[in-house]
């Protein structure tokens, strides 16, 4: 029976440390970290995530701003707002909630954010540096996934890791980070033939497909670590990509949905914003 990797509990511990660092920063330097979240359009789920981020910021003592723009906003108007935030000293981190409306180019918009304020790590320079193994902001969900795996105490070097999903925000950067930890890393996606063959060999499974119950217990190797980033509403309930009940019988560790990867994503966003603030102030005379 698998042990549960409790993302809420681990987040709480990390956030306690963040609160201390923020308090010290305020006391010693009079600085308050600031995050701006930009959302375009009225997708209900996206608005829920954005208010969760704002609430998390307040809970650790950050300044936070929500910029809610209508669906009809032009890309130029959005880029102008980003310019303004890039030059705003109160703001240390900028996040543009994805997905953006179809008339916008997500990569272009993300790369308009100052790389120093790109706390999502989606700017081409940060993605490039991540791939090169240089210092960069690490995308929040993959960073949280690695933190969760580390908490199991497992040595990742030489382990077989399978990532299901190859998106720029979860699957691809998660695979790059697992490779950095010296896992033998495979990425599966919708065109993969016979995914079960890969899953059966995996010591670490990272699921990020957004397909409820895609991965079932009988597909998983005995003793595997199973990290489920998927979040979909199914019959009014939030479910992951992994069929939890059958997988927990086979895995050694497993994340629940909700309460696994989700809270860690927001905690890593706080961590990246604090890091951006510290770097900025350390670079000043
Ligand atoms: N917990 C958190 O903090 C976060 C959770 N999420 C959740 O993670 C999931 C993935 O998000 P995101 O990466 O943005 O989604 P995308 O839709 O951008 O990517 C999904 C990926 O999964 C692959 N895929 C789809 N169906 C299958 C299948 N049947 N078998 C194998 N691979 C498949 C796709 O392949 P292909 O490329 O070939 O189309 C694609 O690469 C969603 O449920 C989302 O809600 C996302 C961000 C943060
Ligand atoms: N620029 C950008 N950056 C993102 O990081 C980003 C994004 N766009 N677009 C959408 C996805 C999704 N995402 C989640 C964050 C937290 C939870 C989370 O905390 N979930 C809770 C449950 C929340 C609930 O009850 O609905 C949990 O899993 O326990 C989930 C998903 C960040 N994303």
From TrEMBL:
Ranges where the Tetrahydrofolate dehydrogenase/cyclohydrolase NAD(P)-binding domain occurs: 139-279
Q: What is its EC number?
A: 1.5.1.5, 3.5.4.9
What does the similarity note say?
Belongs to the tetrahydrofolate dehydrogenase/cyclohydrolase family.
Query: Can you supply one Gene Ontology CC term for this chain's record?
Result: cytosol
Q: What is the lineage of its organism?
A: Bacteria, Bacillati, Bacillota, Clostridia, Peptostreptococcales
Could you list this entry's UniProt keywords, alphabetically sorted.
Answer: Amino-acid biosynthesis, Histidine biosynthesis, Hydrolase, Methionine biosynthesis, Multifunctional enzyme, NADP, One-carbon metabolism, Oxidoreductase, Purine biosynthesis
Q: Which organism is it from?
A: Anaeromicrobium sediminis
- Membrane-crossing residues? none
Per UniProt, where does NADP(+) bind? Answer: 165-167, 231
- State whether keyword Ribonucleoprotein applies: no
Record's subunit section: Homodimer.
Q: Does the keyword Amino-acid biosynthesis apply?
A: yes
Residues forming the Tetrahydrofolate dehydrogenase/cyclohydrolase catalytic domain are 5-120
Hey, which pathway is this one from?
One-carbon metabolism; tetrahydrofolate interconversion
Q: Which InterPro entries match?
A: Aminoacid_DH-like_N_sf, NAD(P)-bd_dom_sf, THF_DH/CycHdrlase, THF_DH/CycHdrlase_cat_dom, THF_DH/CycHdrlase_CS, THF_DH/CycHdrlase_NAD-bd_dom
Instruction: Cite the GO molecular-function annotations of the record.
Output: methenyltetrahydrofolate cyclohydrolase activity; methylenetetrahydrofolate dehydrogenase (NADP+) activity
Q: What is this protein called?
A: Bifunctional protein FolD
What Gene Ontology biological process does one annotation of this record name?
Answer: purine nucleotide biosynthetic process
Function field: Catalyzes the oxidation of 5,10-methylenetetrahydrofolate to 5,10-methenyltetrahydrofolate and then the hydrolysis of 5,10-methenyltetrahydrofolate to 10-formyltetrahydrofolate.
Reactions catalysed, semicolon-separated, are: (6R)-5,10-methenyltetrahydrofolate + H2O = (6R)-10-formyltetrahydrofolate + H(+); (6R)-5,10-methylene-5,6,7,8-tetrahydrofolate + NADP(+) = (6R)-5,10-methenyltetrahydrofolate + NADPH
């Amino acid at each position: 029976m698998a042990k549960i990797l409790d993302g809420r509990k681990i987040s709480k511990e990390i956030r306690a440390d963040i609160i201390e660092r923020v308090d010290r920063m305020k006391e010693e330097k009079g600085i308050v970290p600031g995050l701006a979240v930009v959302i375009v359009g009225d997708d209900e789920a996206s608005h829920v995530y954005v208010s969760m981020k704002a609430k998390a910021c307040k809970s650790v003592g950050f300044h936070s701003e929500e910029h809610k723009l209508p669906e009809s906003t032009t890309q130029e108007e959005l880029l102008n707002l980003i310019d303004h935030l890039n030059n705003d000293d109160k703001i240390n981190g900028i996040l543009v909630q994805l997905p953006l409306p179809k008339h916008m180019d997500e990569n272009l918009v993300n790369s308009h954010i100052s790389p120093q304020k790109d706390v999502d790590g989606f700017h081409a320079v940060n993605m490039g540096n991540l791939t090169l193994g240089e210092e960069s902001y690490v995308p929040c969900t993959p960073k949280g996934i690695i933190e969760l795996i580390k908490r199991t105490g497992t040595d990742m070097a030489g382990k077989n890791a399978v990532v299901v999903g190859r998106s720029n925000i979860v699957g691809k950067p998660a695979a790059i980070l697992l490779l950095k930890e010296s896992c033998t890393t495979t990425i599966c996606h919708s065109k993969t033939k016979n995914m079960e063959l890969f899953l059966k060999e995996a010591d670490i499974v990272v699921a990020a497909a957004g397909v409820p119950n895609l991965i079932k217990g009988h597909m998983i190797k005995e003793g595997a670590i199973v990290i489920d980033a998927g979040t979909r509403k199914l019959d009014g309930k939030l479910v992951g990509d992994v069929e939890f009940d059958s997988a927990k019988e086979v895995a050694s560790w497993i994340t629940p949905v909700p309460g696994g990867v989700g809270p860690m994503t927001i905690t890593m966003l706080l961590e990246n914003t604090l890091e951006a603030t510290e770097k900025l102030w350390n670079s000043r005379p």
